[in-house]
Amino acid sequence: MKPIIHPADYYRRLLAAQPHALKRLDGSVAIVKLNRDQQVPEDDGPAGHWYYVIAGAVRRSTIRPDGRRQILDLMLVRDFFFVGNSQREEPIEAITEETVLAGYSGARLENLGERDRQFARELREITFRSLERTRQQLVVLGGVTTADKVSAFLLLLEKRYRERGDIRLPITRYDLAEYLAVSVETVCRAFSDLQQRGIIALIGIRTVRIVDRDALEHQIGRKYPNAGSDTIAA
User: Fold this and answer.
1) Residue-wise pLDDT tens for the chain (234 aa)?
2) Burial level of 196, CB count in 10 A (0-12/13-18/19+)?
3) Residues pairing with 207 in the sheet
4) How many C-beta neighbours within 10 Å does residue 164 have?
5) Terminal Cα-to-Cα distance of the chain (whole angstroms)
6) pTM for this structure?
């Protein structure tokens, strides 16, 4: 069943209800709607473009020598990411069928930042959060086994969504395999292993319930570090 794509005004209202660092520019953003595998528009200007994920998910990826895709960065709802000329060799694409972005001109952000110190701090904040997302991915990929990596990914999602209990997976197991740099069969076995051990329960195809949080944290050897932090010092 094809998902419903709402009018732009619907997503503007959705954006207005979400707290983020560039709230003062909500009234002038461009709403960009993408289908799965559609590339995020590039900006030919030297300042590039910033995007905020209102709905769906986005991947920055590369093709490995063996022909398989490797997801280098995964952007979910409420994440900012930058698109510039230097990244043309790393496709940035929608990873879900209903992906909607708010687009901000990099040139305009730079101009505002030069005139407004508070706005400059806000711009630095979204840059630091993008770097923090990379650090979080390195923690996930640092797991010794696929079960370790899946466990770290679930704890990361829980922190990013600020929810406890049931976690709605924003991507398919095939996408997760590309994010974790393993085969989809290995990912499925890891989910089955965690379920059989009573650590998680699978509710349908895309929902995971954390049953034993201590065991899930023990799986990666520690609690997930600072994944739920809302603020980063500028």
Assistant:
1) 455 667 888 898 989 888 888 888 888 889 999 999 999 987 666 778 899 999 999 999 988 888 888 898 999 999 999 998 665 668 899 999 889 999 998 888 888 889 998 888 888 888 888 888 888 888 888 888 999 999 999 998 888 876 666 888 989 999 999 999 999 999 999 999 999 999 999 998 889 999 998 999 998 875 444 434 433 332
2) exposed
3) 168, 203
4) 10
5) 44
6) 0.83
Other beta carbons less than 10 A from residue 37's beta carbon: 12
Q: For residues 89 and 102, what is the distance between their CA atoms, to the nearest angstrom?
A: 23
Angle between helices 146-161 and 173-180 in degrees, nearest 10: 110
- Report the alpha-carbon distance of residue 105 to residue 144 in Å, rounded: 41
Report d(CA 213, CA 38) in Å as an integer: 36
DSSP line for 59-109? EEEEE-TTS-EEEEEEE-TT-EEEE-GGGTTS-EEE-SSSEEEEEEEHHHH
